[in-house]
């Protein structure tokens, strides 16, 4: 399973819930400023790439002297193929300065995500109490009615600050 975790990068860890590949846009929430283009691919180590459904991973690659990714790299098959082929064919390499800018944004990520959550809750409360709005589907509003044990489970998933 592949999950785009861009908007919940600091809130949810899809790999802990069974995702095999997680992608994040470093341009949006990680950097927080839009000055640098970048992204992340995070892979789990339990997916069987040699299960017969992925011939580009199991068959030999003539562009890499007959390399079979599954035989050579086992659990690192996907990320090695992604890096090797994309770097060779497209060239997506982050410059040191852009890496620095994204790291600057990561330093404030938890503070920004906390504020995003608080702002979203205020907007949901406002809309929920507005006469022109028929309904609001926002999980956190419903948490007030939940038992404490359910709140704890949802807090772990939602990371309410």
Describe the protein in words.
With 161 residues, the protein is mainly alpha-helical. It has 2 domains: 2-106, Type I PLP-dependent aspartate aminotransferase-like (Major domain) (Aspartate Aminotransferase, domain 2, 3-Layer(aba) Sandwich); 109-158, no CATH class. 47% of the residues lie in helices and 8% in strands. The protein has 8 helices and 3 strands. The protein has helices at 26-30, 55-58, 69-73, 77-89, 96-107, 109-128, 139-143, 148-158; strands at residues 2-4, 21-25, 39-43. The chain has a 3-stranded mixed β-sheet with strand order 1-2-3. The longest helix is centred in the last third of the chain and has 20 residues, at 109-128. The radius of gyration is 21 Å and the shape is elongated. The mean pLDDT is 82.
Q: What's the gist of this structure?
A:
The chain is mainly alpha-helical. It contains 8 helices and 3 strands. Strands 1-2-3 form a 3-stranded mixed sheet.
Any key phrases for this structure?
Cys_met_metab_PP, 2 domains, mainly alpha, PyrdxlP-dep_Trfase_major, 3-stranded mixed β-sheet, 8% strand, single chain, Aspartate Aminotransferase, domain 2, pyridoxal phosphate binding, OAc-hSer/O-AcSer_sulfhydrylase
Oligomer class = single chain
CATH architecture of the largest domain: 3-Layer(aba) Sandwich
Largest sheet, spatial ordering of strands: 1-2-3
Termini separation: 29 Å
- In percent, how helical is the residue content? 40-55%
| Number of separate structural domains | 2
What is the β-strand count? 3
Extract low-pLDDT stretches: none
Keywords: Pyridoxal phosphate, Transferase
Cofactor: pyridoxal 5'-phosphate
Organism: Candidatus Methanobinarius endosymbioticus
GO molecular function: cysteine synthase activity; O-acetylhomoserine aminocarboxypropyltransferase activity; pyridoxal phosphate binding
